[in-house]
Batch of 3 targets.
Target 1
Amino acid sequence: MAALSEGRPPTAGSRIAVLGATGCVGRCVSAALAREGHQVLAVARRGGPAVADHDFVGLDVAAVPPSDLARLFTRHRVSAVVNVTGGWGTTEEEMRYAHITLVDRLLRAVTQMEARPRLVHVGSIHEYGPVPEPRSIGEGLEPRPTTMYASTKLAGSELVLDASRGGRVDGLVLRAVNVCGPRTTRASFLGAVVDTLRAADPGEPVTLRVADARRDFIDVRDLAEAVVLAVTSPATGQVVNIGRGEASAMRELVDLLVAVSGLPSGAVRIEDGPIASKGGGWTLADIRLAGELLGWKPRIPLSEAMRATWETPAD
């Protein structure tokens, strides 16, 4: 049987492949790994300034034969793979391709390797499905997703868990809450709010429709630190929630964004809007296991996260 991660977690100086390296999370994870002394192999469909500081391979992981991917990792002596790919696709086909097909090919590639790298897969808190307020979401909660996004994300995570628990892969699944901070994607609610505020005419009121919802949000830089700790952790075959452990009102987050936007007082009107979410109107992650297994806790306050969301928008 092939060795799993050469029998030990990666150490400083190891080569870590980051899949989805040009996205909001991937860029931050790559930078955090580099700061800890790791060498980053950035993998994404398209390159650019986001990966200028790392070795880069332009690749659609879901489209290549697993044997090709295995040879790539072997050639670069990759000791761990971080999967932060994923998409906000609008069709079932797009979401299955991004969340299931890609993970399946990645696992097939890793299991073909003589020295199998460690795998850290970043999933979503939405995999659990809607949870009634004020319940916190612990890792023991049985997932019951109700949307195609959440269902396909769960399927991908379960592939990793099955392979890890079966001894075929040394893997860990992180289920992250909603992300904010630098380069928050425009496809998210907060990213759309930033775009709306930036396009606003100071002389014309802006109307924002905000749901009466409370959700757990984390700065992407805190998430990146959790990923770095997960890469070198001996924990395997488990799910670990990553969040702030707080449920914040969406109106509070919008107010923080408006405050740092510089728009004059009264320039923004907030109206009640529908709850449009991939996981429901309430999310609150129980993050105790992350502290116990990884020695991790969130550090960046939401006020600073919202400032970074405004000051460093998506490219």
Target 2
Amino acid sequence: MGVAALVAAALAVALVVWWPDAPTGGPTDEPGPVTEQAERLVYERLDAPARTVVRDQATGVVVAVLTDGARTAQLVGPRRSFSEPKATSATVNTTSWVRLLPQPWRVGAEAEDWFTDWFARARADTGPDVLAVATEYLIDMPDGVDANGVRFRGDASFGPVKPSGSGRQEQSDFYDYLGVPWDFPNGPSARPEQSRYGAVDCSGYVRLVFGYRLGMPLLGVNAPGPGIPRRAYAISEFGPGVQLVANERRRATDYSRLQPGDLVFFEVEDDPDTLDHVGIYLGLDDGGHHRFISSRERINGPTLGDVGGTSLLDDGGFYSTAWRSARRL
């Protein structure tokens, strides 16, 4: 749910006021200098999904949303814009910053040392978050290479051309993009294919962003376990975090449950029982539409654009009518 909607959210079921032991400061909802001052933060409990909304008591402004059972936290910070001029004229302007908590959120954690330490750092952090990392693989994005010579960011493709010459192959995972072998804790080791170097399919892209780049555990199988499974249907059904929108085998329209950083799942191929595409929700674009980013065959890689179908959940287009479920990791 967006920040504006949260301000007018339903009646809280519980209310806790937490005064930090030490003064804290953090980014405001507009650019500008940050001043450190003692704050009174109100921790408000809301439902659907069960979550804690953190407000500045003096202004009532929402500064964070923490969802029970999920590690993704929405913070309010400096306004920024995301765009992809070669694929769309739309721009996403947002004050949402999506960070990963060290552990899943639970009721009452605001009084625990691990959270207060993390929260102070996270609110002051303007380094790449989930949304920024996700956009580092769009068209013409520059490469980044780590100390071991591994390219870990930069313009990604979807996969190699099919032997028939028609379309591109799926099954490119994060380790294919990286060109490095990977040992999964619950399965066999994986070896990258040279033909897939620099490529990620839709679920491989999600695993690259949330897993390899941001540190969530990754699984080598499509079964329940302590990490992100390989396939889109498996992530939707029993991935980590919280299911926000259940798959009822029809078009989903529960936009109010979403916040930036959530995963959205689609049925775009022939089997109506299998969710076969996944993207990352970005929020409202400058046209007022719900926009997402995903790795796709038609444009050959990650995109928030409109080539081969608009990246929207609410326009009645190809992906909009194929949207089925959502999960917050």
Target 3
Amino acid sequence: MLDVRRLSLLREVALTGSITAAARSLGLSTPTVSQQLSRLEQEIGVALLEPAGRGVQLTPIAVELVQHTERVLEELEAAEATLLTGRDGLGGAIRVAGFSTFASGLLPRVITRLREQHPALVVEFVQLDPEAAMDELAARRADLMLADEYPGFPLRPGRGLVRTLIAREAIRLYPPAGTGHEVSVEDLAAMPWVTEPRTSEAFQWARTVCRGLGFEATVRFESPELHVHRRLVETGLAAAFLPVHLAEGAGVPLLAARGLPEDLHRTVYAVTRRGAELRPGVRACLSAIREAAADPLAGLG
């Protein structure tokens, strides 16, 4: 019988790209991981890793073995969900990874709801961009992740993941406060802009929209925090694309530019691993997120 723990180590090497990175992510020493993988090779009688530059790569049989491991781990998670469903009450910990505006907008409401409904259930949260959150989910260091997706720039696909639609949030273009509603393409081109980091899908989407309108945005400021974007807009220092609720639902409402596309939006999803979505704690957390997002007074920003 193959050792699932050793198979999981091989899977971690496949996810992280090296034995050293796998050891780091699991909190183990590199020699320990190497030793366990050597024993796995001895058990099955074939090589699983081969030299590749300064590191290693999986052999074809190892790739197939990792695919089987994924299915085994899915079944084990589903079995665990069955056992947990039979218990009275919900307990334990659920680890959630998500982006910044979820953290500032919905997270407090979600935690409050879960404390009221399931006081023994502990929610842990780490703020990460979608790419990093996807890695945490795949590595089983997170049980659930929240990510925003922009039209034309879909979330990275992942094997054995289940997506749940949470919200579709309208976005508008907001010129610097004091500029007024009426702005031309020339005005927009001359304005300083604040965007999310250039490596993000949100930036790629914003640049595509600007080019479609006929101008290239002059990006002076970059921040992953949309509250920073709003502050720069309301102080008259930059233009930005902002979710409507964040721009108009708190404090002094910002004025969106007129005559520009009004069908801009982002979509927010919750993502879990297949099998894990059956766990009572994960189901309760998903339900609380959907309820919080449906609240007309709530916002993702």
